[in-house]
Request: fold
Amino acid sequence: MLYVMYKLTSACDLLYYQSYNVMNDLRLVLHFVVYRQSFCFLFQSHLMSSSQSNTQPTSQKRNIYALEEHPFAQYVRILGKGKTGSRSLSYDEAYQAFRMILNGEALDLQIGAFLMLLRVKEESVDELTGFVQATKDSLNLPKLSCEVDLDWSSYAGKRKHYPWFLLAALTLAQHGYKIVMHGVAGHTVNRLYTKDAVQALGFQSCESLEQVDAHLQAQNFAFIPLDLLSPKLTEMIQFRHMLGLRSPVHTLSRLINPFDAKATLQAIFHPAYRASHQQAAFQLGYKNSAVIKGEGGEFERNPDAKTLICGIKDGECFELELPKINPDRSQAEKAFDLNVYKAVWLGDATHDYGEQAIIETLAIALLTMKIESTYTIAQEKAKTLWQTRFAPTS
Reply:
C-alpha cells in the first residue's frame, strides 16, 4: 500500500511539471498541487497509523507504580539526591535495602541504579556491614560436623601470575586445618579463576552445599562457588557486563564468611578499601581477620611490593607493614600452563617467585589464625609447612 501511494505521488509530480511546461495553465498547475498534497497527507497519515499500531502494546503496559512509589525507591533517592541532598545509608537502611534485593523485591533497573550510585561515592562501613549481614541472614546452609579454621575469599581471578595463594591454602589443608574458600567462576576474560585451578590440581569443588562437610572431611578443603551460596549475588556480579563497572557486590562477597570460621582473609585491589574491610569485619564481630592489597586482587602477598596488613587479633584492630622482598619487579607469566602449576604443587618443578608468594601468604595466614605470634616466626613455620606438605608433621 505504501509503495502504491508513493508511486501515485511521484506520478502527480511528473504530470504537474509536464502540465506546467506544455500548457502553462495556472489552474491546471494548482489542481495538481492540491492533488499531490492530498496524497502526501494520506501517505503521512498511514505512516503515523502504522507507528501507533506498532507501539500500542508497549504504551498500554500497566505500570503499577505510575501513581504510587515503589518501596525500594527511597533507598535510591537517599543515595542519588544530588551533591547536597544525598547521603550514605545507615546500617539499618543498608540492611533493609539489601534484604529487599536478595528477596527479589527490587526491580533490575533500581538495582543497577543503586549499585552504580554506591560505586561512584564508595560504600561506607555501615553500608558494607549492613549488606553483608543481610546476606549472611539470607543464607540457608547445612550444619557442619566440624569448625572451620579459616575462611578464604577468592573473587578476582589472576591475570599476571598463577594463583599461588591456592597452594598456600592447600598446604594448610594438608596439615589438617579446615579451610573454606568461596568465589566466582570466570566473569572476566583473560583471567584464571580459582575453580579452574582447583580442578587442575585434582581437588574437588562443591557442586552442592551438602558437599561442603564431605569435602572438609575428605580433603580439609572446600571450594564453594558463589552461586551455591547466593544465586542473587552471582547474578548481580554478572551485571558488570551490562553496567561496565564492578559493583559493591564484589566487595561484600569477600566478607560473607558463610560458616563463621575462626579467622578470615580478604584481599582488595584498591588500597582505599583496606580500612573499610577491616572496620566492617570488626563490626560484624570477626575476632581474627586480615585484609591486604593482594596480587591481582586475590589474598596473595606480592613479594615485589610492600604489604600493609589491616588486621584484627582477638577482637582488636592492628596494622602491620611488611617490607618488599625483591628489589625488582618479577616478570609476569606470558601464558598460563596449568601443568607447570600442578608440577610446582607436586614438587616436580620449582618456581622462585611462586614459592616466595606461597610462603609469604602462608605466613600471613598463620599469623591471622594465631598459630604463630610474630610474623618472623610465622615465616619459618610457613617454610616448614610448604616443604612437608606431603608428609605432615604433628
In short: The domain at 150-387 is CATH 3.40.1030.10 (Pyrimidine Nucleoside Phosphorylase; Chain A, domain 2). The two ends are 89 Å apart (CA to CA). Residues 26-59 form the longest helix (34 residues). The CA atoms of residues 94 and 373 lie 37 Å apart.
